[in-house]
Amino acid sequence: MKKIFTSLCAVVLLGSGMAQAMGPDIVNGSATNNFTMLSPANSTIGGSTDVTFTWDGTYRTTVVTDGTWNATLASPTPFFGFAWTAHHVNIYAPGTYVFNAGCAAGNASCGTGPNLALTVPAGKVGVHMLFDWNTSSNIDVVLLWDMNKSWAQNGTSSPFFTGTGSATTATVWNGVSLDVDADGFAGAKMVDGPFGLSPATAYSANFNVNGIAAATTPVAAPADLVPSNLATAVAPNAATSIAVTFSEAMDVASVQSAFTVDAGVNICTGIVASNSDKTFTCTHNALALSTIHIATISTGAKSAKGIPLASAVTWSFTTHFANDVVAPIISGALTPVNGAVNTLNTQPIAITFSEPMAGSTATAMTVAANGVAVTGVFQASNSNQTFTFVPTAGVLPNSSTIVVTVPAAGAVADGAGNPLAASPAWSFTTEVPASLVASGATLSVTGGNMVSTEPLSAASAQSTAAGFGKSPPSGVTFNNGFVKYKVNGVASGGAATIRIVFPRTITGKAFYKFKQSTGDYILLTVGGGPNQYLEVNATTIDLNVVDGGSLDDDGAANTIIVDPVGDADVVVGATASTLGVSGGGGGCAVDPSGKDASLLVALLASLGYVGWRRRRS
């Protein structure tokens, strides 16, 4: 890139007492990223801790020559008294790139000037940018970022600029600068401008940022091809689905150009994107009978982030010898059978049809528990003949009547568009566990000894509450009952951590406790402090119960904790405003006699409590 050079006297005077340099602009808008400038002798001569970085999420796979960019860099901090800017910043996917330093801005591949070579291995990210400083312009800089590591892990002995920021050599960055040119220093020595007059006097710029991720290559698994590879007797009708689903969102135009289905000629009249640009369907007229069709998506298809397929996706199928006018029927028994009772909540829901079905079949079928929709998906297998329901929670609700609806008209149809002949009657009930432990939960303790566990029914808890003129909170039901645990050996006035591992996903839910001494159901608070709880993972919580603390019914510092614990489900019509405290009062019982101690934790299977806790991504 053509340069206008300023005097070099300022460069040779770089020192720790000089002004800090500007840095890049970060994707989450936080100006806390790091810039470290290294001297030819591998010493830190300046930098900045107010670096920001923005990126549109795409990657380049060839050297940019059209003047475009996909990232920006900015900082308010001058460098040696002069403002500088970064422009034409581009993020590169794995590959090998050569940048020419003698080109006009925006074309790094004109073939003139010194070269900067950059090899980006798999799992890493490359960067090329241009800097303007003082009266010098278009100074080339390349970077190689490793993912989610600290400066101390970048494989060099180069020092790190800390400035006035809080980052240290142990701070982990989404992108940490590596040695690009194998000279043992972090970064790459500049080849032009006042910072790169000769290899012996060249400086290297390093940026360490958050808000960047390594590129992933899109794939299409065999199960994501419709019809399945080598399928036979495929309906030759115009309604037959020919589709592919990728592992991530794709660039629509590139897939539309790369997707063909060959039966002597390309039979696709169009390629339609759906499923957030992950699924692509070939639209077509009636297919030829008894004919092999070869579907291909070439490597011209790329992800929405700009990464092409590693290899072409190809599969084939053979059409039936006659037009399909026969409606599909249900083949074999439903699982579970209609009318089954007390089935395990882990029991798969599955249905098999007499022939391959259209992809719309999966979304047309529904599952409800006690009249409330159960979130999940029907997954196809067996060449689209068998569909199995996978609940989002991992299991079905206990103590529920499950109704599976399979419509006999419309979307539940075979590949030829023939709808299901008759809708089945299909319902069953799930078991009612005797207690939370019976439902599959486990309890353990740190800071004491788990003496015993015993069941406590939801009816018993409700009866206790009724004795105080109180009732459970509206909008929830305690389907799994409770378990009463007893812990001793707690230090007087100390804390015990009760860990509960549930047999189902609990991320994003809320928790309650029940006070047997007052009949109150109380919403617990989230936190790592005394008398709070923390979510350990998607199935586990830790309760921090303090002897004599706010969760202690008698308020005394004793050495024994006896509490019931259980989980709850939301019922039809419940809202966040109705799922609060029933009654009033304080905390968990810690009673040496075991008479009044009572902690009830209620897991609410609801998606609407963001006001209380944010669901993890």
Output the keywords.
8-stranded antiparallel β-sheet, Choice_anch_U_dom, Immunoglobulin-like, 36 strands, SbsA_Ig, SbsA Ig-like domain-containing protein, signal, 4 domains, 617 residues, Cu-Rt/internalin_Ig-like, disordered C terminus, 4 helices, disordered N terminus, mainly beta
Structure characterization notes:
Residues 1-21 form the signal peptide. The chain folds into 4 domains: 9-208, no CATH class; 222-319, Immunoglobulin-like; 349-429, Immunoglobulin-like; 442-578, no CATH class. The chain has 4 helices and 36 strands. The chain has helices at residues 9-12, 252-258, 360-364, 458-467, and strands spanning 33-38, 44-55, 71-74, 84-92, 95-100, 115-120, 125-133, 136-150, 172-177, 204-208, 225-226, 231-234, 243-245, 259-262, 268-274, 279-284, 292-297, 313-319, 349-352, 366-369, 372-373, 376-381, 386-391, 401-405, 427-429, 442-446, 449-456, 476-477, 482-488, 495-501, 512-515, 520-523, 533-537, 540-546, 561-566, 569-570. The strands form 10 sheets. It has an 8-stranded antiparallel β-sheet with strand order 9-8-7-4-3-2-1-10, with no helix packed on it. It has a 4-stranded antiparallel β-sheet with strand order 11-13-16-15, with helices on one face. Strands 12-18-17-14 form a 4-stranded mixed β-sheet. A hairpin with a 4-residue loop joins strand 31 and strand 32 (520-523).
